[in-house]
Specification:
Elements lengths: L1 E7 L2 E2 L2 E12 L2 E10 L2 E10 L4 E9 L6 E3 L1 E8 L6 E5 L9 E4 L5 E5 L13 E5 L4 E5 L15 E5 L5 E8 L3 E3 L3 E10 L12 E3 L11 E5 L20 H10 L4 E7 L17 H12 L10 H16 L6 E4 L16 E2 L5 E2 L4 H17 L6 E4 L6 H4 L4 E3 L12
Parallel strand pairs: 18-19, 19-20, 20-21, 21-24, 24-25
Antiparallel strand pairs: 1-2, 1-8, 3-4, 4-5, 5-6, 6-17, 7-16, 8-15, 9-10, 9-12, 11-14, 12-13, 13-17, 14-15, 22-23
């Protein structure tokens, strides 16, 4: 169960007059609206359920009488998991890679197991996802930033608590200090389950290598292409989203092994391509003039904004049209979505007007979804492959077909 505690004078206000209605039903998504009252506070919800199971919720709290502010002690969002379903916890701040994330068995002793200030952080201590799981399935809570939260960031804003009866509870302190509610505040968060789709029947025939493979009779035999003398003249930079010379790349592809080609690209590195990169400045000034402000592109990290997602889709569509792309490996698609700019979809504004760091995992989700759809549109088996770096983020990875801990993996060889 998920509950909302609106605290006033030391007590949780009862939610009354609750109503809900379905507002839209389409093949890929459904939406609803809800409302309730908590004393002098009006509560409203907008919800969306997408076809992979992701639920996105926008919660708004406002004084019922706009002329009379409401003083509240705290606001808490609680997500409870039964003991036998919450054996393990996986969470992280913006500090990526294997050795920073929390990925462990949940201790049995009652009390606070973990909070966001105990987790190593870089630019934000916010736990942008928490995944509770047993040995087979899990449930994720996620949010991209603290927009709308009324918090003192020097105190925990998220706690994972083991109750005496064994229940594990995620407590999101939407207000961890007294707040005078003068105008509406809005918070966005969501849930997704894992796995989001079944394993394909032939998953154990997957065989991937960083060097050219001999012809292997498996639909999941991939050549992980980083750099190779036969391809480098046509694609001199592995971060390019398409070769500079598509015909030469396709010709090299025709002369090599027939297993599927899965070139390396990087989720957050966005560079100009031919002919723009042939300009005297390498095309960088020209390119950044278009997307720099929106995506906060610094040459290494670009936020997954609409413009960047369009750039990805156009380039990969062109590459696929050439017939020389079968699958794609997308590196570092984990926490490289962090920025303080409001234009990027990551940043948020504190009560004092300053901008703070947040994520744009929903933008990355859309980026990966569009890549997968491009493969389908070109008649390909969708094979989008990312490393997890110790973080399983269901809502972000829902449209990924292969998740691995690093840049290579192998199951049984197809020949047994």
């Amino acid at each position: 169960p998920v509950t909302l505690d609106v605290m006033r004078a030391g007590q949780s206000l009862a939610l009354t007059d609750a109503r809900v209605e379905i507002s839209a039903v389409r093949p890929h998504a459904a939406a609803w609206r809800g409302s309730a009252e908590a004393g002098d506070v009006a509560v409203s919800v907008r919800g969306r359920l997408e076809y992979d199971g992701m639920i996105l919720i926008t919660l708004t709290l406002a004084p019922r009488d706009p002329t009379r502010p409401v003083v509240l002690d705290a606001i808490r969002l609680n997500t409870a998991m039964p003991e036998d379903r919450a054996l393990f916890l996986n969470t992280a701040t913006d500090q990526g890679y294997w050795w920073y994330s929390y990925k462990a068995w949940i201790p049995e002793a009652p009390g606070v197991v973990h909070d966001n200030l105990r987790q190593r952080a870089a630019r934000t201590s916010f736990l942008f996802f928490t995944l509770f799981s047993d040995h087979d399935t899990g449930l994720e809570w996620f949010a991209d930033n603290l927009a709308g939260w009324q918090v003192d960031e020097s105190r925990p804003v998220q706690e994972i608590v083991r109750e005496p009866d064994g229940t594990v509870r995620l407590v999101c302190h939407l207000a961890n200090q007294p707040v005078e509610l003068r105008e509406p505040i809005t918070v966005t968060f969501g849930y997704d389950a894992t796995p989001v789709k079944p394993l394909p029947a032939d998953w154990r025939s997957a065989y991937i290598h960083y060097a050219p493979l001999a012809d292997i009779a498996s639909d999941l035999a991939l050549w992980w292409l980083w750099s190779d003398s036969r391809f480098d003249p046509a694609r001199p930079n592995v971060f390019l989203l398409r070769p500079n010379d598509l015909e030469a790349f396709a010709a090299a592809r025709a002369r090599t092994f027939k297993v599927k080609l899965s070139p390396f690209v990087n989720q957050h590195v966005t560079l100009p391509t031919f002919p723009e990169n042939q300009q005297p400045d390498g095309g960088w000034d020209w390119f950044n003039n278009l997307l720099g402000a929106e995506s906060a592109n610094d040459g290494w990290t670009a936020m997954p904004t609409r413009g960047v997602r369009d750039f990805w889709a156009w380039n990969l569509n062109t590459w696929l049209d050439s017939g020389s792309l079968d699958a794609i490996y997308i590196d570092e698609a984990n926490t490289q979505t962090v920025h303080a700019s409001l234009l990027t979809g990551s940043g948020w504004r504190r009560a004092d007007g300053t901008h703070a760091f947040g994520h744009n995992t929903l933008g990355m989700r859309e980026q990966l979804r569009r890549v997968r759809q491009l493969l389908l549109d070109h008649g390909k088996r969708p094979l989008v492959w990312t490393p997890t770096y110790g973080m399983i983020i269901p809502h972000a990875f829902a449209f990924v077909d292969i998740n691995s801990e690093g840049e290579a993996y192998m199951f049984d060889k197809p020949d047994g």
